[in-house]
Amino acid sequence: MAIQLALGVDIGGTNSVFGLCDRDGNVIYEHSLPTTNYSDASDLVNDIHSNLTKEGYINNIVGIGIGAPNGNFYSGTIEFAPNLNWTGIIPLADLFEKKFTKPTILTNDANAAAVGEMVYGAAKDLSHFVTITLGTGLGSGIIQDNKLVYGHDGFAGEYGHIRVIPSGRSCGCGRNGCLETYASASGVVRSAREMESPNKHSSILNNVDNLTARDVFTAATNGDLFAQEVVEFTAEILGNSLADFVCYNSPAAFILFGGIAQSGQAFADMVKRHMEESILNIYKDKVEIRISALHDKNAAVLGASSLVWNDLA
Ligand SMILES: [Zn+2]
Predict the structure, then answer these.
(1) Among 148, 161, 192, 198, which has the highest number of CB atoms less than 10 A from its own CB?
(2) Where do the domains of the chain lie, and which CATH numbers do they carry?
(3) What does pTM read for this prediction?
């Protein structure tokens, strides 16, 4: 019998990455196409189909998983995604299902990451956990009883937009003080700029216009005191809000995913310390902070493809 593969598709604002994974999370093939070249989503679907036919994999595909910004699991559509040039409601799961004649599951990218963690990653042993994706923004995916929590409309887990500081920083969602304006790559850069002080001698302040979160974390690791202050502030806000999240559904762990999480165990430990400082006493020392095990260039495709195995299981 031909090897069974899941097609994982990650729709991004710039590129759409797609790949084929086996049940153990081995990526057999991966390719990407520039999303911006496609004014019509069905042309992208056709090109992915042609590519996989040409590469000889089309008959190995047992199902398709799609991670997409503003992806709605229930309707299989992308709804008004701010970073895509497709406007309105795009029936993407339907387009894939018709073209490939295989079952197709679509959800948002943060949810796909959570399922990826459960199927192949750092949460294989857990039934209740939450992934926190620290990218440009902050996304979260909630797993309860081994199932993703979608909520009544498919949009559960927008934890990046809980407001941690009323009338705080302005957020892309149009409101103020959202968690992701502090705990995300862009939040770290904003903190570095806001906390800037002429009295502080710090390497990261030499090039504040082009500063990245990675610069801040690298400088902190190298002993830069101001950078350490910025990282500590970020960990404190995140740790405090995770302590509150625990009250909703008592997860066994938070799995940190994305660029900032990749900076290593030191940041995870710092978040854990702040979480424990402010957590309700009944939850003390019960909730782990883990780092994603999907940390490589294939993470997005792994997350999307895991939706297929999780559904078939
Ligand atoms: Zn917001």
Answers:
(1) 192
(2) 5-116+297-312 (3.30.420.40), 125-291 (3.30.420.40)
(3) 0.88
